[in-house]
Amino acid sequence: MPQNELKKASSEEDKLKIIAIAVTLCVAITLYFRIIEVEEVYTHLFYIPIGLASFWFGKKGFFVALILSLVLLLTHLTMDQLFLNNVMRAFMFCIVGFAVGILSEERNKAENELKKYSERLEEKVEGRTRGLKESKNKIEQLHKVAVQMESTQLEEEVYQLTVDAAEKILEFDMCTLDVVEGNQFVVKATSSELPLKGTVSSSVDEGGMAAKTYRTGKSYLTKDLRKEKEARPSLDEYRSGISIPIGKFGVFQAVSTEVDAFDQEDLELGELLISHTTEALKRIRSEKALQESEEKYRSLTNQLPVGVYRTTGDGKFLHANPALAAILEFESVEDLMKISASDVYNDPRERINQIRQWKTTKEIISNELKFRTKKGREIWIRDTGRVILDENGEISYIDGVIEDITDRKKVEELLKKQREELSAFAHTVSHDLKNYIGIIRNSAQFSLLKKEYAEKNNQRIIDITKKMENFVNRQLELADAGKTIGELEEIDLNKMIDKVRETYSIEIHRGELSMIKGDSLKLKEVFHNLIDNAIKHGKADKIEISSIKKKNSCIIYVKDNGKGIPEEDIDKIFDMRYSKTGTGFGLTIAKKIIEAHDGSISVKSKEGEGTAFEIVLPI
Q1: pLDDT in tens, 205-259
Q2: Where a domain ends, among 368, 398, 428?
Q3: Long-range own/partner contacts, residues 440-443 (CB < 8 A, 24 or more apart)
Q4: How confident is the model over 492-521, as a mean pLDDT?
Q5: Three-class SS of residue 607?
């Protein structure tokens, strides 16, 4: 016997014992009062066992009331005056017992109904709880599938993950995933239990639940496919199904051979799975499109002869092309991208100013700046770029194009210098020619007035015209100086200086000089001009020539013991407008020749202590 029934039986036995005891006490009390011949009986005590019996056993409690009524009547038969009252009491006992029994049974019936309802409700709650737990478990598993989808780069893997999840997690035994290609549904993945003849490719325009789902972008739950007008199952045995759109990619469908095999929860979980599928396909296709775009962009920029870059606001390179790496003298783009963009600026503050300018105007702006290459070479560039800001107004990235304009800058500097020299040349020539013309005019006028002096003045005019010719030739020589140099050759400076000093009577000493490369005729003219200048203008009587050889250059020193150059004139001595005689351009010509050899010449001098020229020539 079950434990609950044992408890129930034991409880009823206890109740019967209690009732039996109560009845016995009532009978005993009644007999006692009858023996002592007490006329009035305390019959209200009889209601205790009657009430208990009726309350516990329903209508059966009536029999206890009947028994006690008989006891009451039988014990008082001889009391005529009380018999009628006792009959009334007995009648009341039976009515109370019967009424209480009915009420008790109704109460017990209500309690039983309530208990059954509670049990049914509890079963529903337990079933719903189990369903929620199962749904939660399925949602958690679908989340894991979504994580897998996010990590894959192949659409085929997403298709298979979707169908596997539908089959194993959602328990859709027969399902298929179709993707639209052109105007056709193409099957990309099916569950293991779906028969091959159950997968049929169709057109988007042919109709059917797949076409309807794709066109409307809505999900459909069909309880009976035979009652759905637009349903065209590939097999007649398919009776119910669900159809879910995969965005603009295609349709997912699950079917069953049973009617009403799917419910709303199946549809919702299926939609959750397909939402993960849709997002994964969007990501893969977006990344693919972006990759193709970037490849086209790289292919285009890699062929450009100018530098192209993209950096963050703090200078990290996001993209650079080979031309930019070449301009900045890096071995490769990868090597360039290891540094910060600020590192290539000759003055990093210029980048800060440039970004501030771009950010303020929000326009494409060009700036000409000095950069320093990896090899330490200073170059001029034109940086044309703009900043791209995010929604918060912060720099998302910076795009720009860089051109190497170093050669153009050199040409501009040369043109500027040539314009200045041309202006100075014109002023000098104009001034000196005016002097000569004035002398000629005065001499001619004097000859007309004083004919006896005509022959003498005519000779003077001839002498002046010769000087003018020499002056013009000298100006042409100056104009051509340094424009071109002959073929470079190995030059022994020792032999060259020995040859030059033969021309002069002053004391010229030299140390052991280096070998250099250059145009020997032009360089010989440089030394002649320096020595001439020392003798004529510095009044020197002793000159020392020495040299030092360095890694990539040779430094030649020409020192004299002349009177030196005034401090205010040192910066002007190579200027063609600077001349104490008006026709001396030896130092200007010397400078042009040295610069034509990609070298430089400078001077140090102090009045009363002589002058020292320093010539630097590349080896």
Answers
A1: 777 888 999 989 999 999 998 888 888 787 888 999 999 999 999 999 999 999 9
A2: 398
A3: 440/464, 440/465
A4: 90
A5: coil
Residue 81 is inside which H or E element, if any? helix 80-151
Q: Residue 199 domain-assigned?
A: yes
Among 482, 458, 435, smallest CA distance to 583 is for: 435
Angle between helix axes 47-57 and 3-35 (nearest 10 degrees) is 160
Q: How many residues does the chain have?
A: 619
pTM here?
0.45
Same domain, 282 and 161: yes
Residues 473 and 586 in one domain: no
- In angstroms, the CA 433 to CA 431 distance is 6
Tell me phi and psi for residue 41, to 5 degrees: -105, 140
Alpha-carbon distances, residue 592 vs 87, 482, 596 (angstroms): 158, 5, 6
Which of 363, 398, 433 is the last residue before a domain boundary? 398
Give the distance, in angstroms, between the CA of residue 169 and the centroid of all CA atoms in the same chain.
36
Domain with 104, as residue range(s), is: 3-124
Domain assignment of residue 582, yes or no: yes
Q: How many domains does the chain have?
A: 5
Give the CA distances from residue 245 to residues 173, 216, 227, 267, in Å, rounded to whole numbers and listed in that order.
19, 9, 22, 12
